[in-house]
Amino acid sequence: MDKKPGVWLTCPMSQYLQQQLTTRFTLFKSWEIPSKQDFFNHQSHSIRAVVGNGVHGADSDLIESLPCLEIISSHSSGLDKIDLVKCVEKGIRVTSTPDMLTEEVADLAVLLILATVRKICACDRFVRNELWKQRDFGLTTKVSGKSVGIIGLGRIGSAIAKRLKSFTSQVCYYSRSEKPNSGYKYYPNVIELASNCEILVIACSLTKATHHIVNREVIDALGPNGFIINIGRGAHIDEQELVTALVEGRLGGAGLDVFEHEPDVPVQLIDLDNVVLSPHVGTCTVETRKAMADLVVANLVAHFSNEPLLTPVV
Ligand code: NAP
């Protein structure tokens, strides 16, 4: 690489990633730039790459503001915050970080299943608030042996299914396409899946087709003894319908890592004992974040050295 290419970082990410980028590129930290409009008016030509993540990606406005943009290297596997159509139109390459995070997110899904069904967060509050001295906590329900329906038997969905074998769960799924060799039962739509399982796990990518894929009808098909676990994206669920169902007792419980308007979380969820909330931490371990950062950088280095991209999307 001759002159260091300019890279636009859409939001604060790990110190490690920022150091790695600074070593090889001229880094522009979007949040430190006082007037973005001024910057785009005068310096937009210096930016040849964008690094974003699953929350702060590259929308149409950002892409249009950067006439010399060649590549978006996303620190995520989800690409719903990138205008992929525009990228294809303009010949901008896009890379993501699949595989690096699969095991971590699958672990969190299982953790949320166990914590939600066995109400472990409510148990913890019960002990801390010294309520144990007054009464027993009460009964929950078993995880082992329950039927689990997975929406999206992709990388993460398959890793969740694999883990659930040790809980003797009956795993079934819905995806765009049937996977005949998976050994799991396929349902051709989400309603049938929800009608035939007790725990519904959302692990698909967010697209127009999967926006609000879990709506009132799906929630009602799952019923008052059913649980929803979401490690995909908040907008997979019609959140208002979810909240209403939980408040009215039409759904047994929910374990949520992602929210429709995160970091805002519906206030009605805060006091519910049958809900477990986590702040979009599916990939938040030192090991996984380092592996993701290395891949983000490796894709940029490959691009600017005219080498094949490691994990191209478009
Ligand atoms: P992946 O391997 O690409 O799998 C995506 C799955 O979504 C595939 O099984 C695909 O179906 C399914 N899908 C896509 N469109 C669908 C539709 N219209 N109807 C039904 N299923 C559909 O991706 P991954 O690595 O497993 O990641 C999945 C998602 O998890 C990401 O897109 C991201 O949003 C989310 N995620 C969240 C976190 C977190 O921190 N909570 C971290 C990483 C990723 P086919 O198998 O038929 O193609």
From TrEMBL:
GO molecular function per UniProt: (2R)-hydroxyphenylpyruvate reductase [NAD(P)H] activity; glyoxylate reductase (NADPH) activity; hydroxypyruvate reductase [NAD(P)H] activity; NAD binding
Keywords per UniProt: NAD, NADP, Oxidoreductase
One Pfam short name: 2-Hacid_dh
Cellular component, GO, one term: cytosol
Domain D-isomer specific 2-hydroxyacid dehydrogenase catalytic: 42-313
InterPro entries named in the record: D-isomer_2-hydroxyacid_DH (IPR050223), D-isomer_2_OHA_DH_cat_dom (IPR006139), D-isomer_DH_CS1 (IPR029752), D-isomer_DH_NAD-bd (IPR006140), NAD(P)-bd_dom_sf (IPR036291)
EC number of the protein: 1.1.1.237
Residues annotated as domain D-isomer specific 2-hydroxyacid dehydrogenase NAD-binding: 111-282
Domain of life the protein comes from: Eukaryota
Family in the record: Belongs to the D-isomer specific 2-hydroxyacid dehydrogenase family.
Protein's name in the database: Hydroxyphenylpyruvate reductase
Species this chain originates from: Helianthus annuus
